[in-house]
Model the fold of this input.
Amino acid sequence: MKTGSDAITAAQIRGTLPAASLDARAITRLAKNPGCQRLAAITQIGSSPGKAMQHVFAENYREEQSRFALAKGRVFERVQCENGAARLLASLSAAGILGTNDVSVRDINAETEYLKAPVAKQKRAIALTDQILRQKATGDPAAPAVVLQAALAIPLSSGEVACVRPDVLVARPDEEMFRPGELKSYAYLHHLTDQKDVAQAAGQMGVYGMALERRLAYLDLTRPVPHEGALVLVKPGGLQSVAQLQNISRDISTAHRIIEVRPRTLAELVATIGTGATLDTKAAIMSLSPCYSGKCRSFCALHDICRAEAAQHGNPAILGDEAEALLAAAGTNLMRVAELIHGAAPTSANEELLQRRLQTLELEWRQAS
Amino acid sequence: MLPVVPVSKNLATKIFESAHALRRDLEAAERAEELPDYLDAAIQEARAAIDAVERRRSELRAERVPGFAASDSIERQTIQKRERLVEALALLDGPAAPSTVSRTVMVLFRMEISPSQFASMRKSDERAYMRGRRRRVMLTPALSAVDLAPRPRSITLSDWPLERRVIGQVSERADGLRTIIRIVGLMKKEENPAWIDVLRPLAQDYRYLDGTSAVDLDCVLEAARNDLAKIEFQDMEERREAAARAAKLPESRRLFGAMTAINTAGEIV
Done:
């Protein structure tokens, strides 16, 4: 969905790179490595690392999640939403997030699915969501307790509109506004629940919270969005769910920051690749500065490209976080580290400290072996 | 030797002539009295005759063309599935989740109809209706109470009252509870243990049962009735209001959902 002349600028920078929506996953991905200009640029111009990988670097590359994971997630969500979201309501009610009588549900996806054109479908979903937000903000008792697959349009300063689709928005009748929620087919294991999974879900809920706040501001509805998201996970051993509140204040702030720096990112991007240049070539993408770390593998399709580049430049990050912390502090690359280990004269105080530390480590290693 | 009359040509001429005459008369008709109610019987007769022609043609083609019988049997199987689906829905007597309908067909007829097949059967009925071949009972979508548009993955019967075919904010929950009450009633009456395959997943959705516990029908029934009592009034109010709006639509839209156009703001125009 593009409007305004600035939107053409983003599209022009994209060139022939295939478009991808600036959705919750994309914004959460940015939050995982905010220092990476390459990731930021590709995402902010409305494409994705996966599309760039396929279009520019490796035609045969396919960005896809595990089919098993996808199927598991789809089945879990479908089962939660069947029969008026009976299972979801039961878990939200058990967690005290909703009352036992708060059972009204609107499913925006179901209400717009009859429209065949994707643009019309999205516009209708946004309009229906706005109606519900107005209902809630004015304290209308007919406002639903649960909204499935709402469509929150975030107007961007460049004139574009990003559309974020939270799995669920939840509010008791006595609450002023909905809280965002996320359905994840991760196992709920009390305090042993995987913290990475929880952080990932919280990141996405943060984006939903940011989108909700921005949409409300756009609609001139001044209602505070609760900063505790409703995280719905799988109860092990079946398809029942468990809901819990998760603080997402930090994630909402991060998401706001990412959206706020977007115009600057685009301006920096134009300055880096040159006015009129497009980001659909290998040279243009490689001219952007990456911020490679071992973690990139888990979320960025370009990690192989950046890793090869890091290896070529002797970037300590390819040896892992601990090595990077030790070596990068001295501002060295791996080639210089090798020289220092072999007795080269240090050129700075930092290098001298590093050389001493490396020699101590080598001695410890020799004694241990 | 008698001259061979090309029957197909003869039939085709008659059909074309009848269609032409009908269209001519229809163009001339300006008042409601010119299309009286007793035309229904004649229209039904004409449809039956057309169906008979198609059936006979299929039979003759099956004798003549090898392999045709196989595709014909697939068609018959599809027709049978559709009829079974209609019967199952009639028994449930209200909209239900696709998986519940599918399980009901399995219990009643030992026949597997995947929920993904519902849409094609429903579309087939809609196409037949639009072509003028109206079945007594058609598979139709439920209508959204918001804008009376068809709800995806929903399936209802055309002879149900509009109130029952409309889906509001609590309707799916209420319909699920009504289905539980209906199935418990059937289980008590028929003592068919296979009904548990339909009841258990449904009751699990409402946490009346867990995956392993023994089924206490009275407990499930009471819990479902209590939960339904909490939302029944709201549900009926919402459905009545939406049904009153739907009643103003032309018959085709009442059956298959309102056609909506969206403006640039996503509003219905």
About this structure: The CA atoms of residues 154 and 345 of chain A lie 56 Å apart. Chain A has 15 helices and eight strands. The beta strands of chain A are 105-107, 146-148, 152-155, 161-164, 168-170, 179-187, 228-234, 241-247. The mean pLDDT of chain A is 87.
